[in-house]
Design a protein that fits this description.
P-loop_NTPase; CobW/HypB/UreG_nucleotide-bd; 8-stranded parallel beta sheet; 38% helix; Zinc-reg_GTPase_activator; 6-stranded antiparallel beta sheet; CobW/HypB/UreG nucleotide-binding domain-containing protein
Length: 368
């Protein structure tokens, strides 16, 4: 019998870091753990980072788990069969919701003889949550993105407030208290996947009964689709060659994301996330990310030294039109090329907006 642990949460919440950190913690306890990444597009920055830390990794691309249910099952079966794992952790696309009805219940109903599905966990960025809360306190109408964010919280069995190391302790305690009052059926855990603070409490929550299993979430799929359609999605590959000797891959990546972050702030464009990897010819790589407009890039990994050639992958999810994101990324790359003395060549821009969510299954709670 294997255990399947589903993660959801808005873009930039730190799901991948949470997944990786908890997988390593479970391995330390003697488990054999695999993970699955998920995205609307292909060429995922996060998958490369996860594979640098874990042996058993799969990905489901081209849509969320709810719309790619058979692909999810195939990935689980493949990992169990090839790597003999006993735990699979999977993170859904950051713009996805209604997972209790479209993923958790179908897995329990159709595969419950072979699989224990752990409580559904929503990973939360505290600063993102506070931003949505401030908008509500100002009396602003609830945006479609805020609606999507609230639905992710409403269906959670476990709410994992991540990145607690980024806010003051008093503020963190107030936030946890407020979430426990707002979502009394959920287990609310504070943690930092980066520092491992609270990770043991999160693992304990996964072993407890699911609190929201019987809740039938009322999802307005038109609003859900509208929220996803506010975001332009880009996955782009680039080949990089030094214009003069060698270049610093981390400096180039930082310049790209600095420029893109500044552009988003100037255009009041919400950044779901912008992530970038640069892999050198010897297999070393840099990974940086931005989760809010105007912020400085955060390094997850930095390549050592310089290189003469490299390959980059950009994943950007920004609330704007696809054509605007194409231009913004192209301008950011041009600026970074000039700064780092690089000649880059890229695949054609492929920004798009997700299609209307059409889950394979949508099951009501037992007895409903």
């Amino acid at each position: 019998m294997i255990t399947f642990i589903p993660l959801t949460g808005f873009l930039g919440a730190g799901k991948t870091t949470t997944m990786t950190t908890t997988a390593l913690a479970l391995q330390e306890q003697g488990h054999r753990v695999a993970v699955i990444t998920n995205d609307q597009g292909v060429e995922l920055v996060d998958t490369k980072l996860v594979r640098s830390k874990l042996d058993s990794v799969a990905e489901v691309t081209g849509g969320c788990f709810c719309c790619r249910f058979e692909d999810l099952v195939e990935a689980i079966v493949g990992l169990v069969g090839s790597d003999n794992v006993d735990i699979v952790i999977a993170e859904a696309v950051g713009s996805c919701t209604d997972l209790q009805a479209t993923v958790v219940r179908p897995l329990r109903q159709y595969y419950g003889d072979h699989m224990v599905v752990a409580p559904l966990t929503t990973v939360v960025d505290p600063l993102r949550h506070l931003a949505f809360e401030r908008a509500a306190q100002r009396g602003e109408p609830e945006s479609d993105l805020s609606y999507l964010f609230r639905q992710q919280l409403s269906e959670a069995d476990v709410i994992a407030v991540n990145k607690l190391d980024t806010i003051p302790a008093e503020r963190a305690e107030t936030l946890l208290t407020d979430l426990r009052a707002q979502y009394p059926k959920a287990t609310v855990v504070g943690c930092s996947a980066t520092t491992r603070q609270g990770i043991d409490s999160l693992l304990d929550a996964w072993r407890a009964p699911a609190g929201n299993e019987a809740v039938d979430l009322d999802v307005d799929y038109d609003r859900y689709a509208a929220a996803e359609a506010q975001l332009a999605w880009m996955n782009q590959e680039l080949d990089l060659v030094a214009a003069n000797g060698e270049f610093d891959a981390t400096a180039w990546a930082r310049a790209v994301l600095d420029h893109l972050s500044t552009w988003a702030a100037e255009h009041d464009a919400v950044v779901g996330h912008a992530k970038l990897t640069v892999e050198t010819k010897d297999g070393d790589f840099t990974k940086l990310s931005v989760t809010r407009a105007g912020e400085q890039p955060t390094p997850d990994r930095e390549a050592g030294g310089t290189t003469d050639v490299a390959r980059a992958v950009v994943n950007a999810r920004v609330a704007c039109e696809p054509e605007a994101l194409d231009r913004a990324v192209s301008e950011a790359v041009t600026a970074a090329d000039q700064c780092a003395q690089v000649v880059s060549s890229a695949t054609a821009p492929v920004s798009f907006k997700p299609s209307y969510p059409r889950p394979v299954h949508r099951l009501a709670p037992a007895g409903a």
